[in-house]
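[Discussion] Sanity-checking designs against the backbone

I'm trying to build intuition for which residues belong where. Below is a structure token string of 692 positions. I'd appreciate it if someone posts a full sequence so I can compare it with mine line by line.
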């Protein structure tokens, strides 16, 4: 087998080229190839300086994911980096594309670093529950000082080539062809008579107590229980205290301490799910329809966000509103969104993007769009009316989508003469920010329409999950159940504030009551009203929440809800307590610990999720995990609720559910799928694999 690493000599310059398509992953053959090339360079009397560069779009990728979970083969990456560093003659890393993770560490093993504009340097390891493990945490601070390393490593962040030059991570910035520029740079270094300059031989960076304190405070808050970001800070601190060789050993020790943890397993699970979620067997070989223009109907909260998302992806948008004033308002919201995107560096120029937006009040303007997304009021008769109009004006072959949160997409499709072209595209608010897109597929939808929806999601840089038709689809249906568990815990003795605190301690960004205050407590009230006619008499009604609505306590927007607000900062609203006491009546009260709260909340989530999978609303457990991760703030390091359930044991969860069912058999009905898996001794993970 030929090596993916080539060694060529031109004059006095050795060029070591890594060619391991598609992403120059640092698999065993590349590591061995780099090792051998350095040996050859050392022994090569003709070559006085070496360049390492990558062929293709990247300098060097990170670890080879096909080697995950297998015993590592020598040479290991830390040794390869040190081997490069120990070369007897100067070595240049010439970086033209992303050099992230292991790729960045190889570049740091070289003596000099040249970057072509457009290159990026970074350490994304924490996103997989790890820290840099091949010297990155020890070498980077020796070049840049601790500040930039503390900015980058706990965040899993990266910098541009310009920024890399500013912070001292690279030595030279150029424009043009990487090979050409590297040759010019190498000749210059030779002419200057430079020698090897080993980063590992540079002195320890200065210890800065304030910087470490600030980083630890920030990441204790931000990481919400995730350990890798704080471990990355420990590794950088080691660089300030220890000689290089010992620092490397400490980095290794910290790296290995993370390697076998449940958090690492959760991150890996989430990482692979990102790839699996859009791979649906029924869509294999199905070509999507071309989408070159989009219509959006309704320009309120969601419509304006969806239009923004499409514009950011370069798609022209025609937005239809009820009247001129609403159309103007929608345009103003979208303009504000685009301006904010420019400020965040996500968009170059708002003005030219806005030329792709047309706002109208006449549906006829949609006659030529390839896809229309409806985001009008959540009311079946309004949706019927809109889809009848869309059916009348849209061209044959166009896709008709609804952003409904709860309504029956099959019924909406039936309002048209072309149900095969109708699908649900359930965006999350704010639609131009949130990553999740639930693609709701009625039985009547044509496969290529589903494939088109997945292709659109990719274009919008969203993570798409296929969902079946039911009240709330995957995410909101499960949410309604764990919200129900929270209300039941209030009746049984836990306070809303204890519940919020316990759920945050589990790793979610907010508890359910804080979330309610943020979204507006009128939403929950309206949902209860909508469901009231079908409510089972055994169900409970959170009468205190209804009373809060009638008091006008709608959460943040009215200054009080479960919390009272000064700005966005809330403190528990004591006025809610008597309302809760009244609702509790003489029910027996339990003394809830945070663990008890977490257990019930999560069990409710998993039990409903198992029903969702069992009924085929979600194709696999992993679809639930992805939905909760990207739409509901479930901590990534826990992998997702189904992964969490496997890790605590399905039998133990089922026992709990059966136990609670003794008091509340209506709410705690075990999911048949959960019972079946426990009976068969199988896990959700087994189900994922069976469907692969
Ligand atoms: P909204 O009330 O902010 O906006 C609705 C807009 O539709 C208004 O601007 C209204 O003028 C316009 N509109 C009403 N009838 C129309 C018609 N016949 N033709 C053209 N425009 C019309 O509502 P929001 O929150 O944007 O919700 C829209 C849809 O998105 C609903 O189905 C909702 O369930 C769904 N949704 C809402 C989410 C949220 O967080 N707000 C999240 C996901 C989905």
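Best answer:
Here's mine. Compare freely.
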């Amino acid at each position: 087998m030929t090596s993916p690493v080539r060694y060529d000599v031109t004059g006095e310059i050795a060029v070591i080229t890594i060619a391991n398509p598609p992403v120059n992953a640092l698999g065993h053959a590349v590591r061995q190839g780099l090792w051998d090339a350095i040996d050859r360079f050392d022994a090569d009397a003709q070559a006085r300086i070496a360049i390492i560069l990558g062929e293709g779009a990247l300098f060097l990728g990170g670890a080879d994911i096909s080697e995950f979970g297998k015993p590592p083969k020598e040479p290991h990456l830390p040794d390869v980096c040190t081997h490069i560093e120990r070369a007897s003659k100067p070595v240049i890393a010439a970086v033209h594309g992303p050099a992230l993770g292991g790729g960045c560490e190889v570049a740091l093993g070289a003596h000099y670093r040249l970057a072509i504009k457009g290159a990026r340097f970074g350490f994304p390891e924490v996103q997989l529950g790890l820290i840099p493990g091949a010297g990155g945490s020890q070498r980077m601070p020796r070049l840049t000082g601790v500040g930039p390393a503390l900015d980058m490593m706990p965040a899993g962040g990266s910098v541009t080539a310009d920024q890399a030059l500013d912070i001292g991570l690279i030595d030279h910035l150029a424009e043009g062809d990487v090979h050409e520029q590297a040759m010019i740079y190498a000749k210059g270094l030779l002419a200057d008579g430079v020698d090897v300059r080993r980063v590992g031989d540079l002195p320890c960076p200065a210890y800065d107590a304030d910087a470490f304190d600030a980083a630890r405070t920030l990441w204790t808050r931000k990481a919400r229980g995730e350990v890798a970001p704080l471990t990355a800070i420990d590794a950088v601190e080691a660089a300030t205290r220890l000689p290089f060789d010992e620092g490397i050993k400490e980095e290794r020790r910290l790296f290995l301490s993370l390697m076998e943890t449940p958090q690492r397993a959760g991150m890996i699970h989430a990482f692979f799910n990102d790839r699996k979620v859009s791979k649906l067997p029924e869509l294999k070989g199905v070509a999507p329809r071309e989408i070159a223009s989009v219509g959006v109907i309704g320009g309120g909260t969601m419509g304006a966000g969806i239009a923004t998302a499409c514009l950011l992806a370069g798609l022209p948008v025609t937005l239809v509103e009820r009247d001129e004033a609403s159309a103007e308002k929608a345009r103003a919201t979208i303009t504000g969104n685009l301006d904010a995107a420019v400020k965040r560096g996500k968009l170059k120029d708002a003005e030219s993007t806005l030329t792709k937006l047309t706002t109208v009040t006449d549906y006829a303007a949609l006659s030529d769009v390839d896809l229309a997304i409806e985001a009008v009021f959540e009311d079946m008769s309004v949706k019927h009316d809109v889809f009848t109009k869309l059916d009348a004006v849209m061209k044959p072959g166009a896709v008709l989508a609804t952003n409904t949160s709860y309504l029956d997409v099959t019924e909406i499709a039936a309002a048209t003469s072309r149900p095969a072209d109708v699908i649900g595209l359930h965006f999350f608010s704010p639609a131009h920010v949130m990553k999740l897109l639930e693609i709701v597929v009625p039985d009547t939808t044509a496969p290529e329409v589903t494939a088109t929806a997945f292709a659109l999601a990719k274009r919008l840089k969203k993570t798409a999950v296929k969902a079946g038709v039911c009240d709330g689809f995957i995410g909101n249906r499960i949410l309604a159940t764990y919200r129900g568990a929270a209300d039941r815990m209030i009746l049984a003795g836990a306070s809303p504030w204890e519940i919020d605190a316990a759920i945050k301690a589990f790793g979610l960004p907010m508890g359910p009551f804080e979330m309610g205050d943020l979204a507006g407590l009128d939403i929950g009230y309206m949902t209860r009203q909508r469901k009231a006619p079908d409510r089972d008499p055994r169900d409970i009604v959170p009468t205190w929440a209804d009373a809060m609505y009638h008091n006008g306590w709608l959460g943040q927007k009215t200054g009080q809800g479960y919390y009272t607000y000064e700005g966005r900062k809330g403190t528990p609203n004591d006025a809610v307590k008597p309302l809760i006491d009244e609702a509790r009546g003489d029910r027996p009260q339990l003394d809830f610990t945070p663990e008890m709260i977490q257990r019930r909340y999560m069990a409710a989530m998993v039990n409903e999720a198992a029903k969702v999978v069992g009924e085929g609303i979600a194709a696999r457990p992993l679809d639930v995990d992805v939905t909760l991760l990207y739409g509901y703030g479930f901590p990534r390091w826990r992998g997702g609720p189904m992964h969490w359930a496997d890790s605590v044991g399905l039998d133990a969860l089922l026992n709990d559910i059966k136990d609670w069912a003794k008091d509340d058999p209506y709410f705690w009905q075990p999911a048949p799928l959960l019972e079946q898996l426990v009976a068969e001794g199988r896990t959700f993970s087994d189900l994922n694999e069976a469907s692969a």
